[in-house]
Specification:
Number of domains of chain B: 2
Strand order of the largest sheet of chain A: 3-23-22-19-18
Oligomer: heterodimer
Distance between the termini of chain B: 15 Å
Shape of chain A: globular
Largest interface: A-B, 22 and 24 residues
Radius of gyration of chain A: 22 Å
Largest sheet of chain B: none
Largest sheet of chain A: 5 strands, mixed
Number of helices of chain B: 15
Structural class of chain B: mainly alpha
Strand content of chain B: under 5%
CATH class of one domain in chain A: Alpha Beta
Helix content of chain B: over 70%
Order of helices and strands of chain B: HHHHHHHHHHHHHHH
CATH topology of one domain in chain A: Dna Ligase, domain 1
Helix content of chain A: 25-40%
Number of helices of chain A: 16
Structural class of chain A: alpha+beta
Distance between the termini of chain A: 34 Å
Shape of chain B: globular
CATH architecture of one domain in chain A: 2-Layer Sandwich
Number of strands of chain A: 23
Radius of gyration of chain B: 19 Å
């Protein structure tokens, strides 16, 4: 990664302020470092009291941790956002069409655009979904598209999250915190609101209910209070005004999935589940699972409930499939993809593997089904020993990995003890899909690598978050 | 409402009430130890008994000392009813029922737990003890106040009140159970200063000294104290008051749900037990009477759990 080529979103290479940041600059100039430091601490206390914490797997003592919050907002201009959202919408439409096709006629394979083994031998492909059409034809009710920026007009999709994208509660709480701490900032800058997300989510989910009569009952399914994202599950249920249920609250009663209430069992129409496919139904998937509902898949196949996102959507955010996304977008929309992919080597392919093994020190290597920044290699910052160890893993199971060049992610300033300092960021906008409607919340979750020079923004690896502004036109 | 949520609310408020009651018991023990000359650590035995943690204490300790007894009740993780364990359990339940609580209640509960976790991470020095115990009561009042001021009066509220008053009734009954002999009209000790101190203890441990004085003046008899703690209609920790409140909340549930499950018969029985005067209670045996109430309170709790589908 060439340091000279890093794109900073606030300052141009000539040291000129980019116009979208004028409001933020004025604000920073009017504040003293001491006051900002005090505000920073205040924000942290606020987060702790609200309980916005996440659990880190594999660390017994540090049970609940706070995701660090940086008070300098990240700004996206209306023009940039318009372009981005068109690209996101196109991509999400393609993903839904792809999922429908893959579980029905598989035209894309017949057309030779994707090799059949990419699907047939893929663990994320769910045979139980073959021939099943979800209510309203929607597969991915909620999508998070991870974007990185490398230049003025250059955005790349790093990854599509089509299973159960998380982080939206941080997007909302970050804005809430900024509103509480710096109300004057929002009086002076015209920022597009994000706070309607929960209401939109509920409306969008309800619009996907199996039958259109009456007000559908929506519930959020969580694995429970020990899950790393439990706060978010409770937060969303609370904000939507719906029940937060666990597997043991549910059972199949008279062909419907129903929750145990103080007055008996009550049927559910739409289940926003934050439980992985494998744990959803011990009768149909992992028999050991205590997190799911025995028989829910049978109700689902009979059209008795909407599961959001649909089971089997993981096939669309699999990192090997990702490398085919440009073809997928073109195949289903007939348009050229508006958003670029990051060039990707599929290690399953012997030629690609050979290249990756020769260039490990310059590449990022990821597990096909991995997430959260676990189990990846970042060549440029890894030690020789780590690279050697990873080489063996890669050779043992090449099909399990893809590799990408280390992108020069854009930077945005954060507030540090020594003043403002640029740090690398990514962006996860959140997309809601219902029959005939795709809604994108302006902005999304900006994750920021707090360590100088680091490219890893994942919260599980020490990343933080920022409030993300999309300015009004 | 989910059965699980009713369960979580019920226990969240039982644990909050328990933390507060235990703090008050420690304060009482401390107070007596300080005002009584030459008395050993004997008083701590009855304090442990009242808190219902006497035998579990013995299982983990060789002898009974004041410091260890306080530590056991205040912050031991091995004692599920210690102040710290109770606050942790209350907060864990609150997390589980997060969607049923207002932001104010959740923040008060979470803040209380964070405060206690930091403060009780190390042994509390004796000189800091009053401040810590006062803090526990203050924090409990904060959660109660947030509950009173911000929660909707619906079935959610009914279940949390049932938890509060079942725990409180249980606590008052246990205080009487352990100390009943002080209130008996025994020939030898009547009017002696020891008795006065013991009566003080009882009133102190339910924060009722002031209220009692207001009602009965300073010429108290054990009979008056028993009357006050068992039958008084206005004293918020008396058995009659707590059981009356549970009656109300169960009644509201009948109205909102339109059904009347067996727990309502249990609460009616309990209320009937209290339709007596204090003379009758003493004549037929104070100890037996309290024992009977404690058993019925336990039965009521179990029946509520069944009736409202707390678990599968």
């Amino acid at each position: 990664m060439g340091n000279g080529s890093v794109f900073d979103e606030m300052w141009g290479s000539d040291g000129q302020l980019r116009s979208s940041y004028a409001g933020v600059r004025d604000w920073l100039d009017s504040e003293t470092p001491a006051r900002l430091r005090a505000k920073s601490r205040e924000a942290e206390d606020l987060f702790r009291l609200t309980g916005i914490t996440f659990n880190v797997y594999g660390r017994a003592e540090a049970e609940e941790r706070l995701i660090p919050f940086d008070i300098v907002p990240r700004v996206i201009s209306a023009r940039e956002w318009q372009r981005l959202s068109r690209g996101i919408e196109q991509r999400v439409r393609a993903i839904n069409a792809f999922l429908h096709d893959i579980y029905h006629r598989q035209e894309i394979i017949r057309a030779g655009r994707i090799p059949v083994e990419m699907i047939a031998r893929n663990e994320a492909f769910l045979p139980q979904m073959i021939g099943v059409t979800p209510p309203g034809g929607v597969y991915t009710h909620i999508v998070g598209i991870d974007l990185v920026r490398t230049g003025d007009d250059q955005f790349h999709v790093l990854e599509d999250n089509a299973r159960t994208p998380s982080g939206v509660s941080y997007m909302l709480e970050n804005r809430e915190t900024m509103l509480q701490m710096f109300p004057e900032l929002f009086a002076r800058n015209r920022v597009q609101p994000v706070q309607t997300y929960p209401a939109n989510l509920r409306r969008s989910l309800a619009a996907c209910a199996p039958q259109a009569n009456g007000t559908p009952t929506v519930a959020v399914l969580t694995p429970g209070i020990y899950n790393s994202a439990y706060f978010e599950h409770a937060f969303l249920a609370d904000e939507m005004g719906v029940e937060l249920v666990e597997g043991h609250d549910l059972r199949v009663v008279d062909g419907r999935v129903a929750m145990r209430t103080t007055e008996g069992y009550k049927p559910i129409d739409v289940l926003y589940r934050r439980v992985d496919d494998a744990f959803l139904d011990p009768l149909n998937f992992n028999p050991e699972s205590t997190l799911g509902v025995p028989g829910i898949m049978d109700v689902y196949r009979a059209g008795g409930i909407t599961i959001a996102n649909a089971p089997g959507t993981g096939i669309a955010d699999d990192k090997a499939i990702y490398s085919y996304m440009p073809e997928i977008v073109e195949f289903y929309t007939g348009e050229r993809p508006l958003l670029e992919n990051v060039p990707t080597w599929r290690c399953q392919d012997p030629e690609a593997l050979a290249y990756v093994l020769d260039n490990l020190a310059d590449l990022v290597v990821k597990e096909v089904h991995g997430s959260g920044g676990y189990g990846m290699l970042i060549g440029p910052t890894a030690s020789r020993k780590e690279i050697a160890a990873f080489r063996e893993k890669l050779k043992a199971r090449p099909g399990n990995y893809i590799a990408q060049p280390t992108l020069s992610l854009s930077t945005v300033p954060i507030f540090t003890r020594a003043g403002l300092a640029p740090r690398h960021v990514d962006l996860r906008p959140f997309v809601l899909v219902s029959p005939g409607n795709i809604h994108i919340t302006p902005g999304g979750l900006t994750r920021v690598a707090l360590k100088k020079g680091s490219l890893v923004v994942n919260s599980s690896q020490g990343g933080g978050t920022k409030d993300t502004w999309v300015l009004e036109d | 409402m989910l059965g699980k949520t009713a369960n979580g609310l019920f226990w969240m408020y039982r644990y909050l009430e328990r933390a507060e009651n235990t703090a008050r018991l420690i304060e009482t023990g401390q107070r007596i130890a300080l005002t009584r000359t030459g008395a050993g650590d004997g008083e701590w035995r009855s304090v442990l008994q009242t808190a219902g943690v006497s035998s579990s204490y013995d299982a983990g300790h060789g002898s009974l000392t004041k410091d260890q007894a306080i530590d056991w009740m205040l912050r031991s993780k091995d004692n599920p009813s210690s102040v710290l364990s109770s606050l942790e359990a209350a907060r864990q339940n609150a997390r589980m029922v997060r969607t049923a609580l207002t932001h104010d209640v959740w923040e008060a509960t979470n803040g209380t737990w964070m405060w206690a976790r930091d403060l009780l991470s190390r042994k509390v020095a004796e000189r800091d003890l009053p401040k810590v115990l006062h803090g526990v009561r203050e924090r409990a009042a904060l959660v109660r106040g947030a509950t009173d001021g911000t929660m909707l009066r619906n079935d959610i509220y009914d279940f949390l009140r049932l938890g509060t008053f079942l725990e409180r009734a249980d606590n008052t009954a246990r205080i009487l159970d352990v100390k009943y002999y002080v209130l008996l009209p025994s020939v030898a000790a009547v009017g002696s200063s020891i008795d006065n101190v013991q009566w003080e203890t009882i009133l102190l441990s339910v924060s009722a000294r002031g209220g009692f004085r207001m009602e009965y003046g300073s010429n108290a008899t054990p009979r008056d104290i028993a009357q006050f703690l068992i039958l008084d209609r206005r004293m918020p920790r008396s058995l009659r008051f707590c059981i009356g409140k549970m009656c109300d909340n169960l009644g509201y549930l009948v109205t909102s749900y339109g059904s009347r499950p067996p727990s309502h018969d249990r609460i009616d029985d309990l209320r009937a037990c209290l339709e007596v005067d204090i003379e009758t209670i003493f004549d037929s045996g104070l100890h037996e009477f309290i024992q009977k109430l404690l058993r019925r309170l336990g039965d009521l709790g179990r029946q509520i759990e069944i009736d409202y589908r707390f678990t599968e």
